[in-house]
Amino acid sequence: MPRLTDQIRKAKINKANIHKAAQQLRSPAILAYGITGFVAVASFLSTLLLARLSGAAVIGQYALAMSTAHLLASFSVLGLDRIIIREVAGDLRTGEYANARRITRQLARAVAFTSVVVSIAYLAVLLLTPLNDRIDGDLLAMAIAAGSILVWPLQRLGRSGLRALDFPLKGQILEAFPTFFFLGAVGIALLSRTSLSAPLAVGVMVLGQALAGIIAWSLVRPIMRKWPRSDVPPDPLLLRAGLPMMGNLFLQIFSDWIILAAVSADASAAEAGAFRVAIQIVTIILTLISTTELYIAARLAGDFRAGRPDLAWKRHRRAQILMAGVAVPLVAIMILIPEQLLGIAFGPEFRIAAPALAIMAGGQLVVALRGPIGAMLSMSGNEPTQLKLTVAGLALLLLLGYLLIPMYGLTGAAMAQVGPILLRSIGGYVMAKRLIPNRPQPAHGAQTADVDDPPN
Fold first, then answer.
1. 14-48 pLDDT, tens per residue?
2. Structural Rg of the chain based on CA atoms
3. How many CB atoms lie within 10 A of CB 295?
4. pTM
């Protein structure tokens, strides 16, 4: 009988462990990383197939057009994608639904207006100045990229709205949608043995972004309409609050763009394409890292609004461990066998970017080890600190690019890109430790909810 009792007890324990494991597998965080993993694979495959289908030169022109659009679209969003998470998630945490509705409408209108103005100004500069000739771009591809400047900011704001509403998985899926849409188009072209030109590739990506934006706002608006209206007039200071975030994002993307533009001007189109492929591979790590920041941003905003930065630091620590665990195996492959990875997967002409790939992968490892510090600083209202670090990083990049690219080519470009990354990562971590206390603080909000330890 005692033996039978022990067996029954062990069976119950095993059943409980299985149930606990099943609950963990259903965790939204696990699903978010699963989606991100699929996105990383889809992004890699789309680059691989496009390289095999159209060659390095087309990838180089496509990358230049989309990176230019991404640069200007990051300005158009005005940093309000982070503001909508911080403010709306905080308002929902404290039950201020009318204010959440007012803020969402105000931010959406501001981003829509800015996107239209910037896209028109971009087309004017493109068509009326010698800019395109100087960076050796495909004029039609660069012109079509104006559509991304128009639709990407609203798509990004809509995805952030879903995250603020505590629907991070929906936001994650819609962030992935353009990538899968592009992969499907490249796959169809491969099956039909049709070569994709740079303008056509850009057009496909812009269409995917537009569809994702339409879906995002079709999910946000019905929920927003259920909230009560607010008689409070729009707060112009709210738009200004996003400027440091906008400046931070814009300067980071400008850093990447200026390196790609410099490589495109000094090297051949094929070399620029090979460098772009190396960046795309490293972006797999960056995508997994940014997923963590975006996933916990709304929760961090709630913690800070509730006066619990100590809970925010607990979330940061768990996310830091997760980010490092995901990044280390990928970085090891990119550092140890970069030439084989590029040569076997993409072709012999891409091997030239192997040293650059290894250097940039090392930079992303440092980003992973610091944890989601960017989200900690922005959600706690310390955007000016991020902006100062980014400005310093840009100055360092320009100096390193001027010195290293003429001497070392693609390898010098990679070294110039990694320098600011190290500065922002290490400097950001040090500043966050100084500015954000690891203890409870007075709550910001009238109806602060009870808060326990953050969930796993």
1. 444 434 434 443 455 566 666 766 777 787 788 78
2. 23
3. 23
4. 0.69
